[in-house]
Amino acid sequence: TDRRAWYHIRGTRVIYRTFWALFGLEALTTILAYSKVGALSASDGEQRWRRPLLVLVTQALIFCDCVWLGMPFAYLTLWILPLFTVTMYLLTLRVIAEHQTEAYALVGSDAFSRTVEHPLIRTLQPSMLGRFLLGSMNFFYHHEHHLLPGVPYSRLPAMHRALRERGYYDVHCAALGEGYGRTIARLVFPSHLSRG
Question: Which residue has the higher pLDDT, 24 or 45?
Answer without folding.
Answer: 24
